[in-house]
Amino acid sequence: MAAQQVRVERDAAGLAVLTVDAPPLNLYTAELHDLLDEAVGDLEDRPARALLIRAEGKVVSGGVDVRLFAAQPSRARAKALFDQMLDLPDRIAALPFPTVFAAHGLCLTWAFEVAVACDIVLAAERASFGLVEKVIGLTPTMGGTQRLAARAGVGRAKEFVMTGDRYDAATLERWNVVNRVLPDDGFDDAALRFAATLAAGPTLAHAATKQVLAHYERGGVAEANEHITSIAADLFETEDLRDGVRSFLRDGPGKAVFTGR
After folding, report:
1. According to the CATH classification, is domain 203-251 in 1.10.12?
2. What does the domain layout of the chain look like in residue ranges?
3. Does the record bear Isomerase in its keywords (predicted)?
4. Taking 50 as the threshold, does the pLDDT of residue 1 lie above it?
5. SS3 string of the chain?
6. What is the pTM of this model?
């Protein structure tokens, strides 16, 4: 039963779909963390071509089970917990293939922090988001504040965290936090199609794009420029680039079939 709270399904094309299904609210618990940790570990050991993270139920997540915090007897134990929690979205962000988060409904605290660790955030029109840790006197610990600032700016991040308000999908799309807002009807299928398109694409080139942008995040345009030519040149050793060039010259654009090799 517990293992079904997190499941990873892979298709023949290389798309992995990680589903959180811990009713009724998909709350973050120590048990759920262990299951997510195991799932991400499997994706690290056996990389997919793309990953879609989604949830079952009426909400993506109602947040963290506060009893987890109540169980921490000291500052040292709390820090150890927070270090463990932060590691999860960091590892998702480091996966060497495209990652997509699909939010179909209310998406609070840890789930939002995982969402902004992904490359692309898709939201249904009815989705809403919040970092509401202020209600217990805490600040977000899983990287959400700083990743929100990277997408929307420091001022927006301060507002989002300090108010603890819920923000709708349209607002976060305007803030450049959500990449695309999609209709409620058919949202799951649309998110799956979007992720499948990425999985069918030149995933080694996508991984290279993630490397370049990681350098940009660390040191701006100058650092990215120091690495881009080497990263791009490495792609000339891949079958995908060689086949893509041949296909373009022979058949025109958009006809290449990529294999991730």
Report:
1. yes
2. 2-199, 203-251
3. yes
4. no
5. CHHHHEEEEECCCCEEEEEECCCCCCCECHHHHHHHHHHHHHHHHCCCCEEEEEECCCCCECCECCHHHHCCCCHHHHHHHHHHHHHHHHHHHCCCCCEEEEECCEEECHHHHHHCCCCEEEEECCCEEECCHHHHCCCCCCCHHHHHHHHHCHHHHHHHHHHCCCEEHHHHHHCCCCCEEECCCCHHHHHHHHHHHHHCCCHHHHHHHHHHHHHHHHHHHHHHHHHHHHHHHHHHHCHHHHHHHHHHHHHCCCCCCCCCC
6. 0.95
